[in-house]
Fold this protein.
Amino acid sequence: DEILFIPAPDVSVRVAGVETGEYHFAHQIKQDQYDRIKAMAAVEPSVPRPYGWMTAVPNHKQGVMASKKVRQAMLAALDLETIMTAAVGNKAFYRLDGALFYPEQAAWHSQVGVTAFNQRNQDKARRLLQEAGYKGEPVRWISTKEYEWMFNTALVAKQQMEEVGFKVDLQVLDWATLVQRRNKPELFDVFSTGFGFDPDPALTTSLQCNWPGWWCHEEKDRLMAELARETDAKKRRALVERIQAIFYEDVGRIKLGDYFPLDLIRKDIKGFRPGPYLYFWNAGFAK
């Protein structure tokens, strides 16, 4: 027995291949195809939940976003429903939830400290910019069109930020260049990316001090170290909730919303289970 993974860059080719039976599974289909796919007799959509969240990562190390009040102003200005609609469109594929961990992760999912999520408060944003002494310095936001949702979220957020007084320099790069530049704090102020599913909060990328963006915070880093050592579930949850409160108070990253991809699978495949990680253990053809 074998599984063949066949690169097919064109989304329409992937969809047509599964529909005709040339392929049995297709990954990362555009969500605007959802209604058409549901009408296909031999194919069913697969929507992995949880999957990841879209984010804008501010540069804490240097530049205009190193100011906490400027970061807070950006967070206050954003209308996340509008941003996620531009990114995904169909509400079946996004969720406005401010928690760092997903509702499907019941042990860690909490609404503690998330009141700053989706504020849509332009007056507050203007006040925070004034308090920060912001003088119209360009916010260099690097994004890419190789992931369409990254560009769309950045474009809408740029418009919303400029309405409250920010000046945003949106720089569109290829993904490889973005990844290269985000390692150099002198080259950007915000970058677009997504954070994937992490099974354990102590290991989650979004909370690490040494990851690009360099969100290093003394109390948060101490709590993360405690979280890695702690084995009691209730104590771990309390640590997660305190970390989450710090995340929003200090604006460690800017969570835009949860998102879910669309995959296709033929109905004659049995045993496949959609999830945040792609695997085909125990999958096979129906007899």
Summary: The longest strand covers residues 52-58. The CA atoms of residues 207 and 215 lie 7 Å apart. Residues 233-250 form the longest helix (18 residues).
